[in-house]
Specification:
Layout (H helix, E strand, L loop, with lengths): L6 H7 L8 H15 L1 E7 L3 H12 L4 E4 L26 H14 L10 H7 L16 H14 L4 E2 L12 E4 L2 E6 L5 E9 L5 H5 L4 E2 L5 H4 L25 E3 L2 E6 L25 E4 L5 E2 L13 H8 L10 E4 L3 E4 L21 H24 L5 H8 L3 E2 L20 E2 L7 H4 L8 E5 L3 E3 L3 E4 L5 E4 L2 E3 L5 E4 L13 E2 L8 H7 L2 H21 L8 H10 L19
Helix pairs in contact: 3-14, 4-6, 4-14, 10-11
């Protein structure tokens, strides 16, 4: 067993706090961390996983620093993904369940229902909530943010925003052997810690520390899967119907005129082969139908008609999908609006450079997605080429005045469905998801169908445009996620945990990548980090039976409950 040279150093320096009262100890510890930029646990990424990890670490008496490269706290949970992707509610425990219980408590007072009544929401609309539940799974983004701020205030947690890890070669992470000693920001600030948690969607800390990782799609043959790699045959959802013949060319039917934007001229590839492509990103949009709480959808600066020509041809075809699908209702006459259909809010093929991109590249990709999304909605509301019945549906919606007020009602968090993924001693795969292989060191349960959005558009043999990469496969029970999948292989980095960009294949990640699961894994990662610090050991050597005891004491769900036998499905 390797000894962590920094855990004892941090602990000795902060030993005075154990002699103080709990309140004074918290104040002294946080003040020390602020002055010296040092903490027992440094968390990079204020996502749902990062905040859950910070709360758990504070509950175990550790000093914590939470850093985020951007300006948004809570990741997708506060960023518009308000109709929670659950799969099976019975396997959501610990801080994650507490979070959704706190959401419910926020909506208990009648005064919270300003733009519609509680009765109307629960009786007249489709809802993910059931009468008598202890938690609430749909919510407004601003309420989700309020709950996170409550937790942070109660536990003395401050998030330092705009703290961007230095991504230049040879910068960013200061190592001593296989341990991270400190991480360095672009402005030169260093944050020293005993243990580190990379809770970002991108995995930058993991990558800069030298941990092995991948991105894109593995070939099916690599891990004995059937749903990974190129998926032409499986891509039947969010697809142009067979009778929908949409030309991919600038001049319809004229190959010599060139292709419309982001259409692969070389064909989709062979089914099951791996590639570099990333499932598409979008923004999860919060829309309002309450006229007193609306901002208009305006044509965005930078609007390019070519970006929406496929949309218009699709609308003109007579095969446009029912527009109300995936406009999922959340309280107060709002929605969580997600991609649906052959052409929608998913900006297919525009994100390939994101995982390895620098900050400028990612900001450009994010801005393009924002322009595309606003342009999509403006087009379906206003273009005379869109049938009037479809335009009428979309015209009832606007941006909510009381959400994302700093950004004109538009979300500030891009839906990074997938970026880098660690490669460690256990790689979660389709075999684990479908219980052909069951891990013995569970740190949480996956409970959603294998769900990959489209990866590319291509021209089929008939000369029409098709989408490729959408996979939606359910029918299996919740399954355990391995502790070894959230820690690097021993010898690479011995004091880092990775609960978001964990070790998983592309298609298994499509099931794992749900916000409640990230919270669960963030809590488990923090528990293990505290154990490693207390024992002065590397995180790979943490005693799993003891870790399991602590997780169960926190009401984490680590195994399939006897009452949770219903197979999980994918919401289309």
């Amino acid at each position: 067993m390797h000894q962590n040279p920094f855990s004892s150093q941090i602990t000795r320096r902060d030993s005075l706090r154990w002699m103080l009262s709990p309140l004074l100890a918290t104040m002294a510890a946080q003040r020390l961390a602020a002055q010296e930029k040092k903490a027992e646990i440094v968390i990079y990424g204020a996502t749902s996983a990062g905040i859950a990890a910070a709360v758990k670490a504070r509950r175990m008496g550790k000093t914590v620093l939470v850093l985020d490269p951007g300006t948004h706290i809570g990741g997708l949970t506060t960023g518009g993904l308000s109709w929670t992707d659950i799969g099976n509610k019975q396997v959501v425990g610990g801080i994650a369940r507490e979070y959704y219980q706190r959401i419910k408590a926020k909506y208990d007072p009648e005064g919270m229902w300003k733009w519609e009544s509680r009765k109307d929401y629960y009786t007249k609309k489709r809802s993910a909530n059931q009468e008598g539940e202890d938690a609430m799974w749909t919510f407004e983004p601003k309420v989700a943010m309020e709950v996170y701020h409550d937790l942070m205030r109660e536990h003395g947690i401050e998030v330092l925003l705009k703290q961007r890890l230095d991504l230049r070669a040879g910068r960013g992470v200061r190592m001593r052997g296989p341990w991270i000693e400190a991480i360095r920001m672009e402005d030169g600030t260093e944050y020293i810690g005993g243990a580190f948690i990379d809770a970002t969607y991108e995995g930058d800390l993991m990558a800069k520390a030298g941990v092995k990782y991948t991105y894109g799609r593995e070939a099916n043959a690599q891990y004995g899967e059937t749903l990974n790699g190129v998926q032409v045959a499986q891509a039947t959802k969010h697809q142009f119907p067979p009778a929908c013949k949409v030309s991919p060319y600038i001049q319809p039917g004229n190959k010599n005129s060139g292709l419309l934007p982001i259409i692969n001229p070389d064909g989709p590839g062979k089914d099951g082969d791996g590639d570099h492509r990333i499932q598409t990103y979008c923004f999860r949009l919060c829309m309002s139908s309450a006229k007193g709480n609306q901002l208009p959808i305006e044509k965005p600066a930078g609007y390019d008609p070519r970006d929406h020509e496929l949309l218009l041809r699709y609308a003109e075809s007579g095969h446009y999908h029912p527009p109300q699908n995936k406009w999922d209702p959340i309280p107060n006459a709002k929605t969580d609006t997600n991609n649906h259909g052959a052409v929608s809010t998913d900006y297919i093929g525009a994100n390939y450079l994101y995982p390895e991109g620098d900050y400028d590249a990612r900001e450009q990709i994010t801005e393009r997605h924002q322009i595309y999304t606003k342009g999509y909605l403006w087009t379906v509301q206003n273009s005379p080429r869109v049938p009037e019945a479809i335009r009428a549906y979309y015209r009832q919606w606007g941006w909510p005045k009381d959400e994302f007020v700093e950004n004109g009602g538009f979300p500030t968090q891009l839906y990074v469905r997938e970026a880098r993924r660690m490669v460690s001693a256990v790689v979660m795969s389709q075999r684990h998801v479908q219980a052909n292989e069951v891990v013995k060191d569970s740190v949480g349960m996956g409970a959603y169908g294998m769900d990959s959005h489209n990866q590319q558009r291509y021209v089929d043999a008939e000369g029409f445009v098709r989408n490729e990469g959408d996979v939606q496969v359910g029918g299996f029970k919740p399954y355990p996620i391995s502790y070894q999948s959230i820690v690097p292989t021993r010898g690479q980095v011995n004091n880092l945990l990775v609960p978001v960009c964990l070790s998983s294949t592309h298609i298994a990640f499509g099931s794992i990548r749900m916000e409640p699961v990230f919270m669960v894994l963030g809590q488990s990662a923090a528990t293990a980090a505290c154990m490693a610090l207390d024992a002065g050991q590397d995180i790979q050597a943490v005693n799993y039976p003891r870790l399991r005891e602590l997780m169960l004491a926190d009401k984490q769900i680590l195994d399939l409950p006897p009452t949770a036998q219903q197979p999980v499905q994918v919401v289309p």
